[in-house]
Design brief:
The complex is a heterodimer of chains A (about 150) and B (about 375).
Chain A lengths: L1 H25 L23 E3 L14 H5 L5 E6 L8 E8 L8 H5 L5 E3 L14 E3 L13
Antiparallel strand pairs in A: 1-4, 2-3, 3-5
Chain B lengths: L11 E6 L11 E7 L2 E8 L7 H5 L11 H4 L5 H15 L5 H29 L4 H21 L8 E2 L2 E2 L5 H26 L2 H7 L7 H6 L5 H5 L6 H4 L20 H24 L19 E8 L4 E8 L7 E5 L1 H12 L5 H10 L4 H4 L2
Antiparallel strand pairs in B: 1-2, 2-3, 4-5, 6-7, 7-8
The chains are: A alpha+beta (about 150), B alpha+beta (about 375).
């Protein structure tokens, strides 16, 4: 009988102790991020939309070797290069990036031997048209969005 | 002749649990044979979350599969990436820089802590306690924020790559991780008061779903489920990989193999993971975080395998190369299949509410089974 009441007492104390923890939490600072009302703070390393990097002179680092397109698990890149007259190497003529297929895994970024493809923290892209998700990353291309073949 | 209430055929029923039930953790479908509130037998139905990971590996180049590795076990993805990276490094004979080894361990252990915290919260939800998950997510958020800074994403971290890791960490991140270790250590007393000492929690879990060491071994259970039964098997100590041999840490063990022990083992593992991270940061070497890898990854023909300790147990990757840029075959062994196989054995004669507790205590990620 004594053990029974001792168990009851211990149980009640353990429950009250737990409630004390929640009571303390009531007076601790709010940790919830009020996301839609306040913009979320993203890490600068956040993997968002891709872009083509440039060197100090403003030239694209990309040599259109196509390694990123070949190794992409989602086949969301397509690159075509051309060698401008007088240039020592190839430059991309079109670099089409289908962001609707991209899983932001970074296989292209880590695989690129020239460091020519990099992530940006841009992540929101809203459109009613599928074509708007086919991004032409190469600024000199004639058409802004080219259908993915 | 009268039929007693207990023998009435009306008490027997066939009950479908899941695949959309919140306590089946994903898309597990259980077909229960019930007698009143008691479970007579159980049949698990899998396949609802099948994403053809292994087949996908056979269609794209070797390095492309790194994108899939964190998605196999989405709650603790980094050990999967670690395992695949070890496999490729063995195949290509790549020496990984020291700093990369340390960063791999730091990120994997942070991921393990995040996964265990998620489990504690979800397990207590299964038992009907809503409050603890809020505390767990508060702590987990800190770990996920650090992982976001290190890896670039919050859940499916594609951080591991052949020859190292994809990004370095700066001094600010090191300070953040140290602050997290301090904070987490101060939070254990809260969990103790809120959960571990709670009389309802203890009564719901003590002596429920007891797995004996023999049973655990017979069904191929691994990870905290096996260690809660008292079997000291952790790949990090049994067959150290990726530099784990240089760290001193304990392998927490349970005594009776019940749900309470599985909870205690996981909480103790969080402490050990914090100790590993602290040691790794104390002697974080400088230098590059990625070795030079060939542009064309084509391992010589042959079979390769590697094993790591994930948050749920052993993760093994086995690959066959035919010398081309695309894997001929990739087989993944994850822990959840072995752990789930215990459930039909455990459930006989159990109350339905205890079945939910046992199912929760196994820490299942069902899509990890459906690959």
């Amino acid at each position: 009988m004594k053990a029974y009441f001792l168990d009851l007492y211990r149980g009640a104390v353990s429950l009250l102790d737990g409630m004390l923890v929640t009571l303390q939490a009531l007076f601790s600072p709010v940790v919830t991020e009020q996301y839609p009302r306040r913009a979320a703070v993203l890490s600068p390393h956040f993997r968002g939309s891709l872009k083509l990097a440039r060197d100090g002179q403003g030239q694209l680092l990309c040599t259109a070797c196509g390694l990123c397109a070949r190794s992409c698990p989602s086949t969301c890149l397509s690159v075509q290069g051309e060698k401008p007259a007088g240039a020592g190497r190839k430059f991309p003529a079109t670099f089409v990036y289908d962001i609707s297929r991209c899983s932001f895994c970074g296989t292209c970024v880590t695989g690129c031997p020239f460091g020519a493809v990099v992530f940006t923290p841009v992540r929101t892209r809203v459109s009613a048209s599928r074509d708007a998700f086919l991004l032409e990353l190469c600024p000199g291309a004639e058409e802004p969005f080219r259908p993915h073949t | 002749m009268t039929i007693s209430a207990a023998e009435s055929p009306h008490y027997r029923m066939h009950l479908n649990l899941g695949p959309q039930h919140p306590s089946t953790h994903g898309v597990l479908h259980l077909e229960l044979e019930m007698y009143g509130e008691y479970v007579l037998g159980i049949e698990t139905v899998l396949g609802y979350g099948h994403r053809m990971h292994e087949k996908t590996a056979e269609r794209r180049p070797w390095q492309a599969f790194f994108a899939n590795t964190p998605r196999i076990d989405y709650a603790c993805g980094l050990p999967h990436g670690h395992c695949y990276a070890l496999l490729l490094e063995e195949a290509l004979q790549i020496e990984v820089p020291e700093r990369a080894l340390s960063l791999r361990i730091v990120s994997s252990e942070l991921n393990r802590i995040a996964s265990h915290l998620l489990w504690v919260g979800a397990f207590l939800l299964d038992l009907g306690a809503f409050t603890p998950i809020l505390y767990c997510f508060d702590d987990r958020e800190q770990a996920v924020d650090i992982l976001e800074h290190m890896t670039g994403s919050r859940l499916t971290h594609p951080y591991m790559c052949a020859g190292g890791v994809t990004g370095d960490i700066d001094e600010e991140t090191v300070l953040k991780i140290r602050a997290f270790i301090r904070r987490m250590r101060s939070r254990f007393s809260i969990y103790e008061r809120l959960v571990t000492n709670n009389v309802i929690f203890v009564m719901r879990t003590r002596g429920i779903g007891v797995i004996t060491p023999e049973l655990a071994r017979a069904y191929g259970a691994t990870g905290p489920v096996l260690r809660a039964s008292g079997v000291a098997c952790d790949i990090r100590t049994v067959a150290p990989y990726g530099g784990y041999g240089r760290y001193t840490f304990d392998v927490p063990l349970g005594a009776s193999g019940d749900c309470l022990d599985r909870y205690r083992v996981r909480m103790a593992e969080i402490r050990q993971s914090l100790a590993i991270i602290e040691q790794a940061l104390d002697r974080l070497p400088g230098g590059p975080v990625r070795a030079a890898v060939p542009r064309k990854i084509a391992p010589p023909p042959g079979e390769y395998s590697s094993s790591v300790e994930g948050a749920r147990g052993h993760v093994t990757y086995w690959a066959v190369s035919d010398g081309s840029e695309i894997p001929y075959r990739l087989k993944i062994r994850s822990a959840c299949m072995g752990n789930l196989s215990l459930l039909p054995e455990l459930c006989r004669g159990m109350l339905l509410a205890d079945l939910i507790a046992t199912l929760g205590s196994l820490d299942l990620v069902i899509p990890e089974i459906d690959r």
